[in-house]
Amino acid sequence: MEMHPWLPNLGDLREMLKEIGVKDVEELFSDIPKEIVLKRELNVGYGRPLSEYEIARRLEELSEMNAKLLYPPFLGGGVCPHYVPYAVKMIISRSEFYTAYTPYQPEANQGLLQALFEYQSYMAELLQMEVVNSSLYDWGGALAEAILMVNRINGKKKVIVPTNANPNHLKVAETWVKGKGIELVKVKYNEEGKIDVEDLEKKLTDDIGAVYLQTPNFFGVFETEVEGVVELARKKGALTIMGVNPLALALIKPPGEYNVDIAIGDAQELGIPLSMGGPSLGVFATRWDAKLVRQMPGRIVGLTKDSFGKEGFTLILQTREQFARREKATSNITTNEALMAIAVAVYLSLLGRNGLKELAEEVYLRSHYATKLVESRGIGKRKFLGDFFEEVTLTFPVEYQRIHEKLLKAGLHGGLGIDDYSAVFCFTEVHPKKAIDLLVEKVEEVVKNVEAS
Amino acid sequence: MWRQAKWDEPLIFEYKEKGRRGMLIPREDEIRKAVSVNIPDKIRREREAELPELSELEVIRHYIRLSQMSFGVDTGMMPLGSCTMKYNPKVEELSQSLVENLHPLQDISTVQGALEMLYEMQEWIAEITGMDKCSFQVPAGSAGELAGVLMIKKYHEEKGRRRDEMLVADTAHGTNPASAAMAGFKVVYIKSNNRGLVDLDILKEVVNENVAGFMLTNPNTLGLFEEEILEISKVIHSVDGVLYYDGANLNGILGVARPGDMGFDVVHVNLHKTFAVPHGGGGPGAGAICAKGEMAEYLPYPIVEKSSKGYSLYYPKESIGKISTFFGNVGNVARAYTYILGLGPQGVSAVGKMSTVATNYLISKLRGIRGLELPFPGKYRKHEVVFSAKPLMNDTGVTAFDVAKALLDRGFYAPTIYFPPIVDEALMIEPTETETRETLDKFANALKEILAEAYSDPKKISSTPLNTSVGRLDQVTANHPTTVTPTYLVKKLREENKIGALR
């Protein structure tokens, strides 16, 4: 190869080698045992370097293989489809942001640091929790880190998790904490789809390190007994971890007002595209308590002054981190989801106080409208009667798989099946009334057909 | 001369005007007539979140100004050692159209195009690393390490044995011991010998039936290739230990040698380093965790599988479970995919060579400068080189920290400093293959000038930077229990005397 846009020194190779004082490139690798030096080209890509045009064609070809849907899927389960404004995309495409790395040199990265500080501050305001880190990978990872943090604080090896929490989050947490021998103790949910407080009381023994609860939970239902759960946990000397959808916090009481110890969640719904689930943004926050803050995972940006007395920003409390503490660090995390945190800050800035509430209401209303339509047509009903947000679990008189297949044929992607007859559906501002009406109509066709036969 | 923007841009929360907004939300008035918001009293939010109220232009101008006070690869050379800050080809952004609107829980029949991309990437990263199978469950390098050590733990458990110790080289990235500890291992450091390499004699002494595995970076963080790697592999395997490859430094040997051929069993790859995914101001990255032989059955799930019926998801028999909630950072795997397409087999195979040439060229330009010392001399470096500014500090009091700040003033980002810990006053420089020879010359000259100036006028260097948006930041104020301010909420509460010191 003589020239390539991303390998500028191919043409200077001979002179550079001369400057180094070697006769060929191989000499630079003479310390690698001969038997393991690769004697062929790697078999990757498509035979030769592709031009940008050819890459674009290949991407189009692949895109063609994905199904064309009339509307975004009616799927939630941890991430939900939303519209991401161009202003957000433009800002996170700024080279100074997206080609930067962790601001190890704060003087040259003030803007990046300020944007991350603003993200932390937005989350603090929504959550009413004083300390927020600048991102973890996703909600599942944040739950795992919260459980590991609890273990560092009180040394206990059991954490209560409700079975109405997102099962994928629980699977992630289970994987991460297994190495430390931490056990997840499962608590049942009641007929309303909410955490079963009696079962919780029974299992809340002295060796429980923390109680986790998620609201709105996996079924879309609001937990209404948070206060009671927090009180129970505190009495037994357990910490509390609350998982929340930050968008719902425009309408419901924030974790800080319940005085929980750790709040987690995923900020994907605030300006981050689906991207098959990643990159996303794990939210992690604690109360103003040194015992908690000193054990927090992840990077934190803080406010300070520079040598001229001007306000400035820098990474703070770094003695918690892997590069400083190695095996005694609070987490191994290094690369996080910083750019996504900036996207969320920009999105929330655009929404503002009024927009946030309006969006949350719109989403709430659409999920209720869809549910009302399904129930009034007699083609399905809510599996759980508690009030819900954005997502709702519907049970149908016919097998959900049949409905699902029929919907796909019509260019619609239904909800996530959770048992033979039920599925969790998600409705947001990208599902207009027309789309919801069409969805219900198609479901009705299947139900009526099956009933007729 | 380089100058960075110095906007006095307030925090976004300090814009106090009311009654503006930056975006409209699609509203269905008919739906609003049909149903209403009725949150149970007990859980309703009473006090609204205090968000600013800004027009679209105000928001844009605010963040554009912030971006102008930041620094990325597109701004100038970022020689951060072990971070592989190479150029991020713009075509990568095109790849988002393939995946950005796909929901992770969609029926797999509807995402076959994305799965084909993931499948090809699994195959290519396996080929590049010499492994059998890869999983993209890991969103970044340290998550890859955690997955790797959990796999090693489970491997031994399945064989009915308890192994508590994880070996880590003393030159290792801090993430290695942190990951091993997260998985419940006791970390045992292997000292480097006087050549900057793993001390084989010490290794042989330490390895016993209680050792689960060895986490190794090759080339190591000094940029040196572990030339006794085959012997190291033998020693670890003699007790059925697992050899783990930290892929952070893969860029130095990409296309030249493969971890699988060296005897490694499990490998993680940082797609945001070696495969040019933009670093995003700290993330998101993307990772792959790969393994060969028996170890491949322990990989996190799911893995994409190909059959006559198309692409489906595969769950390895002994899988450790899930590391990400869904498929990992698919958006960034797609970016790396376009990078590999654009380089082709010839380009990918040339990366290790060209990054190594860049490093050694830079060394030849910097060799013999007064104040700098090259520890463990006499060997060619691979992707990076570590110089020590200890002579400079002894002679003038100017530190590696000061040199880093002075580089900022000359339009370069600073190298990684004070790492690895076995080198005093370390300057860890990784130029990558994407910087031109002229840029390498300019960087070398800037460093030379700084060192010369440090001898003639040390105060001048220790008062840098002056050309950045702000001067040196006060770390004491930043971290002191009475002044530490991690959020605007804390700032407000402190001003209202509603919170005390963080003790």
Automatic annotation (TrEMBL), chain A:
One of its GO terms (molecular function) is glycine dehydrogenase (decarboxylating) activity. Keywords: Oxidoreductase. The keyword rRNA processing does not apply. It catalyses: N(6)-[(R)-lipoyl]-L-lysyl-[glycine-cleavage complex H protein] + glycine + H(+) = N(6)-[(R)-S(8)-aminomethyldihydrolipoyl]-L-lysyl-[glycine-cleavage complex H protein] + CO2. Its EC number is 1.4.4.2. Residues 12-417 form the Glycine cleavage system P-protein N-terminal domain. This is Probable glycine dehydrogenase (decarboxylating) subunit 1. It comes from Candidatus Aramenus sulfurataquae. The lineage of its organism: Archaea, Thermoproteota, Thermoprotei, Sulfolobales, Sulfolobaceae.
TrEMBL record, chain B:
One of its GO terms (cellular component) is glycine cleavage complex. Keywords: Oxidoreductase, Pyridoxal phosphate. This is Probable glycine dehydrogenase (decarboxylating) subunit 2. Residues 34-304 form the Glycine cleavage system P-protein N-terminal domain. Residues 353-454 form the Glycine dehydrogenase C-terminal domain. The keyword Ligase does not apply. Its cofactor is pyridoxal 5'-phosphate. It comes from Candidatus Aramenus sulfurataquae. The keyword Zinc-finger does not apply. GO terms for biological process: glycine decarboxylation via glycine cleavage system. Belongs to the GcvP family. C-terminal subunit subfamily. The glycine cleavage system catalyzes the degradation of glycine. The P protein binds the alpha-amino group of glycine through its pyridoxal phosphate cofactor; CO(2) is released and the remaining methylamine moiety is then transferred to the lipoamide cofactor of the H protein. Pfam families: GcvP2_C, GDC-P. Gene3D superfamilies: 6.20.440.10, Aspartate Aminotransferase, domain 1, Type I PLP-dependent aspartate aminotransferase-like (Major domain). One of its GO terms (molecular function) is glycine dehydrogenase (decarboxylating) activity. The glycine cleavage system is composed of four proteins: P, T, L and H. In this organism, the P 'protein' is a heterodimer of two subunits. The modification N6-(pyridoxal phosphate)lysine is found at K273. InterPro entries: GcvPB, GDC-P_C, GDC-P_N, GDC_P, PyrdxlP-dep_Trfase, PyrdxlP-dep_Trfase_major, PyrdxlP-dep_Trfase_small. Its EC number is 1.4.4.2. It catalyses: N(6)-[(R)-lipoyl]-L-lysyl-[glycine-cleavage complex H protein] + glycine + H(+) = N(6)-[(R)-S(8)-aminomethyldihydrolipoyl]-L-lysyl-[glycine-cleavage complex H protein] + CO2. It comes from the Archaea.
